[in-house]
Specification:
The protein is α+β, with helices and mostly antiparallel strands. It has one domain. It is 44% helix and 16% strand. Strands 3-2-1-4 form a four-stranded antiparallel beta sheet. Strand 1 and strand 2 form a beta hairpin. The longest helix is centred in the middle third of the chain and has 15 residues, at 28-42.
Length: 97
């Protein structure tokens, strides 16, 4: 499974699944993405900034330069597949190559 990406203030942050998930929390990466999106919806910008700072510091978040889709949920494997196959291929139901 690929890593979810959160976009904030024009920067993209990959939530590193291998750093946050464990047998007791198998979907923690998606949970963190939902947390970010919830904070956005209620205007809790300080929590978002703090989580990004700490995620980068403790290694479970990484700033990335690829962007796909609507700026909310992106997946690295689809970007990598597009680079390998060429971006002029037919798109799937989600609008990705």
């Amino acid at each position: 499974m690929s890593n979810p990406i959160y976009t904030y203030r024009g920067k993209n942050y990959e939530i590193l699944r291998e750093e946050v998930e464990s047998p007791s929390q198998p979907n923690r990466a998606e949970g963190l993405l939902r947390d970010f999106l919830h904070c956005e919806s209620v205007g809790d910008w300080r929590t978002i900034s703090n989580r990004i700072t700490n995620g980068l510091l403790f290694g479970w978040l990484k700033e990335v330069d690829y962007v796909l889709g609507d700026g909310k949920t992106h997946y690295k494997d689809k970007w990598e597949r597009g680079k390998k196959e060429g971006f002029n291929k037919e798109v799937d139901e989600e609008g990705f190559w």
